[in-house]
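Running co-folding for adenosine-5'-diphosphate.
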Amino acid sequence: MAAIRPAGDFDISYAHDMAVIRRPWQWAAAVGLVAFLFAVPAFSPPQFLDALNLIGIFLVSVQGLAILVGYTGQISLGQAAFMTVGAYASAVLTKYAGVPFWFALPLAGLGAGLVGLIFGLPSLRIKGFYLAMATLAAQFIIPWIFRGFWVATLGGATGIQEIPVPRLAGFAFDSEWGMYFIILVVAILTTIAMKNLARTRTGRAFVAIRDNDLAAEVLGINIVAYKLRAFFLSAFYAGLAGSLWAHYLRSINPEQLDLIDSVWMLGMVIVGGMGSALGPILGTVFIRLLRELVSTLTPNLNDMLPGLGANLAGLGPLVFGFALALFLVFEPHGLALAAVFPLAV
Amino acid sequence: MAFKSVKLGVENIHLSFGGTSALTGVSFDVLEGEILAVIGPNGAGKTSTLNCINGFYQPDQGQITFFPTGSERRDITRLPAYRIAKLGIARTFQNIALYTGLNTLDNLMAARHVHMKQSMLAGMLYFGSARQEEIAHREAVEEIIDFLEIEHIRKSVVGALPYGLRKRVELGRALALEPQMLLLDEPMAGMNVEEKEDMARFILDIHERRGVTILLIEHDMGLVMDIADRIVVLDFGIKIAEGTPDTIRQDPNVIKAYLGEESQHKT
Ligand SMILES: Nc1ncnc2c1ncn2[C@@H]1O[C@H](COP(=O)(O)OP(=O)(O)O)[C@@H](O)[C@H]1O
Ligand SMILES: [Mg+2]
């Protein structure tokens, strides 16, 4: 499918052809959109900002997962655990080591990235379903470590409370709208970085591995190195998201982000459409809204079908997770909403 | 044309799968700047030979030596495939193995990988030298696209292209690696006469203009006799003949192996 471009958009040079934003009106639209996003707190109630903040935090993590799953063709059920690593790292650094949030944020990414790298090691040997099972281990081992080790610092099952508020030049980001700006800036930067990655050397190597790992190796790509890079980057994004999560909720415990969150995030990647920068945004917004809907409907379901309803509500996420796993095994390129929006790829 | 030196030495290669042996003591040299054709009936071990050369398979026994231009000879027998590519050996596959989700341009750009230096972080920032590098390599890739006359499908996702064009894109991808040596596994299989002629013309052009040494597997005997400088014949994993097209044409062993296959095809 050829990319469709606005009439009159002739490529005057390769540099121009390779630019993401080519036309003055596209610049205007991009600037307008960003300005609008920054203006949102001016007319939004706190509950709405809260929903947006959670969407933003998960978006960052889902983008990371999209790099791993959508671009590189790997799979991970550990993304929520890597977020937990980032959250704890950021909480400990700011609360006990006095590190400012602005430094703790990238360090949380780095820490989570390294942990992700370790859990990515099985990808060098196994694929698909078995890799999903191997990464699932992260989801059990990581909370277990946070529950049982260094309890004096990490707080065991109750976790860490009163995580410091980010501050800049005397201003405290302790409200929904304060954190909204931080989350927005981080999400914009990660979106741009992901888009750039996709159109440069490393991103092409990732997709080459996804589409044909044998050919990729024969054409000079060190598959081992690039799979591990993808796992690192994916968990790095999760770590950033985890740090944002910790400083937004101001408390973290080992069970806050669990397997179900990992499965939902995988769902966001798949539903959004893999291999485009727009995919994670569509997927995250859509699934977060769906999740809100399910959690408001579940009590009603209980009323309608007493007894059975409770069981059904428990089964819902499981069935959803199973369907997603099957989807990935049999239809690795996903629904690709991107196909509906070819302009946005 | 005078051939100077050996470009690639294949020495006494043995390869087996389970109990069955696919290659038995195969040896031959590919000379600098020649087009060497490897022919033989189906299952003779032609593809397996290429797979050993580019590190896809590890032979049980034997040695493969590459002589890169301007540097020391290298024993590449146990080298990982990506390192062999980096030394300057590129290939195409019998069953096309493109990056189906990428467009033509990105398939070729992906093969520039070994010539690019930018880090992951520099790419994500798309700033300064990373951007310069992308543009410079885009120019190199556009040259190949012009040469192979595939400008019109530059931005088409390759998975959806017709067979003949995909074969051509795959040749382009191998060229984008700027190889010293090209391994082509049945580049004209399944093509119509016109497409075959185009492909033969491209191969001869690559050979002449870029001075690339070519190792070619091909079934169409007429074409092989036309374009190859020398021919190696395999049958049941054994080299049964080697020589110029004229000597091969008259070789009784070759005639026997091929008549056998022809009659199989007819029935
Ligand atoms: N990966 C493999 N596993 C098992 N047998 C193989 C494999 N690759 C090749 N063979 C066997 O090796 C022999 C040679 O195959 P191949 O090199 O593909 O032949 P050609 O390319 O000449 O048609 C065949 O008998 C084939 O079945
Ligand atoms: Mg073959």
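Result summary
Residues 44-258 of chain A form one domain.
Residues 223-249 of chain A form the longest helix (27 residues).
Job closed.
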